[in-house]
Amino acid sequence: MNSTNGTAEPQQLTVRALFDGERSFAIPLYQHAYAWGSERTTSAGLSVGLDQFAEQLLDHTHILLIPLPERTDLNHYFEIMNTRGVQLEAHEIAKARLMSVLETTGDESDRSAFATIWDACADMDRYVQQGFTANARSSIFGSQWCEFKAQHFDDVKAATAARSDNEATDHSQETTLDAALEEELLSMTSNGENTHGTDNSTGASANSDDPNDGRFSSILDFPNFLIHTLNLFLAVQHDTHDCDDRGSAGSDTNQRNALVLNDKNLLEYFNTSKPYFSTAEQIKTFAFFMLKTRFIFDMFVIKSDTAQDKTADHSNWSLRRVHKVMNNQRPRLVPAHTFPLVDYSTTGTDTGGEEGDEVDEYLDTDTTHQFQRDIIMLESMNQVTFTSRTSKTFVQDYLWELRRFIVNPSDIWSEASSVASCFRDALWDLALTQFKHSVGNNWKERTGAAYGPNGLDVFTFNFIDYVLWRYSQQQSPMPDTTSSRGIGQLRTKVNAVWSDDNQSPSHSNQRKASPFVFHYRNSIEHFFPQDLVYNHAAEYDVDEGHLNELGNLCLLTRAENSKRSNMLPKAKVAQFNIDEQSLKFRIMASITETSDWGNAQIESHTKSLQELFQAIIDLSNES
What we know:
Layout: E1 11-14, H1 15-18, H2 38-43, H3 50-60, E2 62-65, H4 74-83, H5 90-102, H6 108-122, H7 134-141, H8 153-161, H9 165-169, H10 179-186, E3 198-199, E4 204-205, E5 216-218, H11 222-238, H12 253-256, H13 266-269, H14 280-300, E6 303-305, E7 317-318, E8 320-327, E9 330-337, H15 366-385, H16 393-401, H17 403-407, H18 411-414, H19 416-439, H20 443-448, H21 458-470, H22 484-498, E10 523-526, H23 530-535, H24 544-547, E11 553-556, H25 558-564, H26 569-575, H27 583-594, H28 599-622
Helix pairs in contact: 6-8, 6-14, 7-8, 11-14, 11-16, 15-19, 15-21, 22-28
């Protein structure tokens, strides 16, 4: 329906209110058939209690009236929407439930602010600042749009309510309607005109101040983020100690992960009968907490960057935040590396920069650049390992480590000089803990039989790659808060693994390892194939006792393995793009340059890795 009363806001109306004489609607002709007369209601079995039915229909049935852009072809729109078959998602129902509690306050601006926060957080492939108008951004996120200035839900309510007349009428800045839907509807107009300066090839508004729309893809969907946020919200409330105190009651892992990361349970978690959602004030408190969590999440958790992405699995990892620059007297958001943390109001970067520039690149020192890269590596290691939504508890661990910033975002800037190193150390500690859990106390026996139901998992192999990258001889030193003796021993064992290739000049050259990136290699495979050992054992120097040792195993994608699973090691190496493979695979490949691949090579490589494991365990015990 096209509303002619000039409103730009969705309205919830009763059926009776539709016919109050103050509104007029254009109804497509084919919808007239849906107007039932008394004979239709009688045949439908509604003759008994018809008065009660009419009262229920007219006064207790609510219709959400959503204005559509002018010149929308209503027949085309109805045809598309009526045949799309899209059902309400669980998080949309949860939103409606929470807003129904806010309705009891009688303050429509509470509901409007809540909806704006929810919708801004729900769009996981844009930065949360992009869900607010320019004026609201300045009020909530500071003059450079990269801090968090709001102190309470009411601050957000005031910011979203105080829109200028221009913002209220400029469709390119309207956030209460779905901008993408509006552009799609405009393209449906009967004359096909491009009336709003839209580039129809991309669907992006020419007036948009966000040129990076669609560039960054989140590692979480919104239902998953919602559950993470609620988990943290309840854990922080449960924590009776100071947020900086590790070992407090709320820091217990079971408490932090009390809710299962499955959106099938989302409606149960977001039921307004729950004690934490029983009042309007609690719901507003949660909404504000969610906004702060999303702000910190965007700054400190990796995304996949589609710009110049040459990877086959969207693993062009990015760790960026956004801030304001002026372009032709128009403010817009641009991405920049999260580290170093810089106050852009004093750097002058708000007055220039071209689209796509990393405007703070020149501010990176060697140390901060290393922390930035290292954090990306640790996070992407987890992302490619734990790929299902129910297994992403590592995000909850990140948020827990960042909780003091979520509770009080201004602390980021007072601690700017140490945030990168502290966060990196926290990620490293989490990885060490996960490694010890993955390999278990009987890790020595498991490295000798590392394949199969009781073998080592994908995380262990990815962690080996991370340690081989991070502590290799060619990697620039980075400050570590852990024991220098332990780190020194770890570096020695790492370089011993690299030396397994007997200084082969090609595949495992450590200098080539520096740009290593984690991809979705999720299949543990045999370098020397199982089939040849089981069916042609007499022809080769690999027996069943060595086949499943750690030294003969590596990570591949399932697609790669299916094509080359029964090839001999040297033939596999010739077929693969080595620079796209894991570091462990590269070392194994380089060994084949100077020797055959047999029992002796497998045993030697396994022994080197066992010594590396021991160094990691020793270091974790010192931490």
